[in-house]
Amino acid sequence: MERRARRNETLAEVGALAAGIAHELRNGLNPISGSVECLQRELKLEGENAQLMELITTECSRLNGFVTDLLSYSRDRDLVIENVDIEDHLADLCEELSRDPRFGRVTVRVERGGPSGSVQADRVQIRQVWLNLATNALEAMDGHGTLTVGWGEGESGQAVVEFIDDGPGVATEDLSRVGQPFFTTKQGGTGLGLAIAQRIVERHGGTRERRAQGRGGAGDAPRRR
């Protein structure tokens, strides 16, 4: 209990710091992004100049995404609890991901581990959990492999959703750090996607387990009581 209290206090401090950083970054990024859009409309750039402008646009977009993640982590929105059909929700998500050009030739497979069921959850926020876990797995596979998304019922009757990928896996010594804010082993990663997912799961009264797979890859299993 004391350990959890210390952890929650640390997370609150990190959240406050993240909110301040996000505010300052967005204040600087907004005029930069707006100025670039104006220049793109007014100037007819070619060759290297066009490439440089595209680089600025891409990096502004990336930093805006980072700011959005910071704000998502630092602000706990009120939960709007309703009945969420797990099968329908995951099927829609997997269909969307299978059409995403970012993930190349990765196959997204849905594997039902039990009867179709539902869970009491915030529909928008629980989708964010599943999207973050799936995206993390897909990015780890570097454009090829299979992501298996399954669900079922745990030993205590809780809903369990699993994301199992064919990526390189997670080193055993890093498993305990996965989900901590700003910890990442991915080049260009922020370490916030899984932290946001874990925070939402815990606010729903659930847990998230991360494990290395024997055949390579890794698995994430959010559990909702």
Defining traits:
Sig_transdc_His_kin-like_C; Heat Shock Protein 90; 7 strands; histidine kinase; HisK_dim/P_dom; 2 domains; ATP binding; 5-stranded mixed β-sheet; globular; Helix Hairpins; alpha+beta
Mean pLDDT: 78
Beta-strand segment tally = 7
Work out the radius of gyration: 19 Å
CATH topology of the largest domain: Heat Shock Protein 90
Largest sheet: 5 strands, mixed
Plain-language structure description:
With 225 residues, the chain is α+β, with helices and mostly antiparallel strands. The chain has two domains: 2-74, Helix Hairpins (Orthogonal Bundle); 81-224, Heat Shock Protein 90 (2-Layer Sandwich), CATH 3.30.565. It is built from five helices and seven strands. It has helices at 2-42, 47-74, 86-98, 123-140, 193-203; strands spanning 81-85, 105-112, 118-122, 144-153, 159-164, 207-212, 218-224. It has a five-stranded mixed beta sheet with strand order 2-4-5-7-6, with helices on one face. A hairpin with a 5-residue loop joins strand 6 and strand 7 (218-224). Helix 1 packs antiparallel against helix 2, helix 3 crosses helix 4 and helix 4 packs antiparallel against helix 5 (193-203). The longest helix has 41 residues, at 2-42. It is globular, with a radius of gyration of 19 Å. 26% of the residues are buried. Residues 214-219 have low confidence and may be disordered.
